[in-house]
């Protein structure tokens, strides 16, 4: 039976509208479930209110801040939170008189999402948190894995507030202009194909990222798919210990939405930065503090070649390459205590 032209037009319009509607729903992430809102999870952590109205949740550990000799802000990585446990002995913490300030980065845990989140905003969140809790004019920062890009931000935008900084198994952006093409291409090629594609989408077409992470046709990020091939042997041993004694608070990490926590973290970190690491200037020209990179030689998530190169080009960054360590190096007590001692005692 032949359709009349008068019938074809409405059908075509209906199909087009339906396709556009499906596309819109597929690309648009769901709204976040804000902590404390009628439809959101309850607020279960102490929080401070930032100048823009957002809240940051935090946790204090170590010696009381009033008695501390060294105050360290610890910045968690991808898929983590303020409830991470650093395996430093109580004896070491007491000996060095260390106060730790952990916090949930925007969208994670009990901290409000930040629709305007950027590399730059991370530094000012750290600064405002430190000021609200009155930990002093200068403090130390430790950034773990993806939590290292906020440390780079601190080095760029608030270097005058830092007493020292450690970047542990630090994230790298393969599109940093400072990286030679052969190095970035080689390092990028070492990643699993599904991770390469995920990072490309985050960098070039971030508006597609929610769809990419939600679709079922192609494999997306390996770490979220539970692909254990990305971990070294030492990492697997640490993960086994974690599985036997899970840390508290893990169920809250994505409670406000996977887009506002995990997805936005990747889009910001792998997007176009406001600065290049080579633009950074030594914040301690008189050796009143130090900056460190700690890198596991066996790390299969962050290729050591890139961080080795950065430290060679920025000689004021002290580079430690741990031969038998993987990506989770700071969660081995001997490495964690070495990171702490080096940071505060140099």
Q: What does this 3D model show about the protein?
A:
It is built from 12 helices and 8 strands. It is of the alpha/beta class and 346 residues long. Strands 1-2-4-3-5-6-7-8 form an 8-stranded mixed beta sheet, with helices on both faces. Residues 72-340 form the AB hydrolase-1 domain. This is AB hydrolase-1 domain-containing protein. InterPro entries: AB_hydrolase_1, AB_hydrolase_fold.
In short:
The chain has 346 residues and is α/β, with parallel strands linked by helices. It has one domain (47-344): 3-Layer(aba) Sandwich (Rossmann fold), CATH 3.40.50. The protein has 12 helices and 8 strands.
In CATH, the topology is named Rossmann fold
Number of helices: 12
How many domains? The number is 1
Strand content: 5-15%
| Portion of residues within helices | 25-40%
Protein name: AB hydrolase-1 domain-containing protein
Pfam families: Abhydrolase_6 (PF12697)
InterPro entries: AB_hydrolase_1 (IPR000073), AB_hydrolase_fold (IPR029058)
Domain AB hydrolase-1: 72-340
Structural topology:
Elements: H1 5-27, E1 47-49, E2 55-62, E3 70-75, H2 90-96, E4 98-103, H3 119-132, E5 139-144, H4 148-157, E6 162-168, H5 181-189, H6 193-204, H7 209-214, H8 222-225, H9 233-244, H10 258-269, E7 291-296, H11 304-313, E8 317-322, H12 333-345
Parallel strand pairs: 3-4, 3-5, 5-6, 6-7, 7-8
Antiparallel strand pairs: 1-2, 2-4
């Amino acid at each position: 039976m032949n359709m009349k032209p008068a019938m074809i037009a409405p059908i075509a319009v209906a199909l087009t509208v339906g396709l556009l509607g499906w596309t819109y729903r597929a690309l648009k992430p769901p709204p976040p479930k804000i902590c404390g809102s009628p439809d959101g999870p309850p607020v279960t952590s102490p929080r401070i209110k930032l100048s823009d109205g957002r809240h940051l949740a935090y946790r204090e550990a170590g010696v009381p801040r009033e008695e501390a000799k060294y105050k360290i802000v610890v910045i968690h990585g991808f898929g983590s939170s303020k409830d991470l446990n650093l395996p430093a002995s109580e004896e070491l913490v007491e000996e060095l008189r260390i106060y730790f300030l952990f916090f949930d980065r925007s969208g994670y845990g009990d901290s409000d999402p930040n629709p305007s989140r950027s590399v730059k905003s991370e530094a000012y969140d750290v600064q405002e948190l430190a000021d609200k809790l009155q930990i002093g004019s200068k403090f130390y920062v430790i950034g773990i894995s993806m939590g290292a890009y906020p440390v780079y931000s601190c080095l760029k935008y608030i270097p005058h507030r830092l007493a020292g900084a450690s970047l542990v198994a630090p994230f790298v952006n393969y599109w940093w202009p400072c990286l030679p093409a052969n190095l970035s291409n080689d390092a990028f090629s070492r990643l699993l194909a599904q991770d390469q594609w995920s990072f490309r989408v985050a960098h070039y077409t971030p508006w597609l990222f929610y769809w990419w992470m939600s679709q079922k046709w192609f494999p997306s990020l390996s770490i979220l798919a539970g692909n254990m091939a990305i971990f070294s042997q030492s990492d697997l041993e640490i993960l086994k210990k974690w599985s036997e004694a899970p840390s508290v608070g893990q169920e809250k990490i994505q409670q406000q939405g996977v887009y506002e926590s995990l997805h936005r973290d990747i889009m910001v970190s792998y997007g176009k930065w406001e600065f290049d690491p080579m633009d950074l200037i030594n914040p301690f020209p008189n050796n009143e503090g130090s900056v460190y990179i700690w890198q596991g030689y066996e790390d299969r998530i962050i290729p050591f070649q890139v961080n080795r190169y950065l430290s060679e080009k920025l000689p004021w960054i002290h580079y430690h390459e741990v031969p038998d360590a993987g990506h989770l190096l700071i969660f081995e007590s001997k490495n964690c205590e070495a990171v702490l001692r080096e940071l505060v005692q140099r």
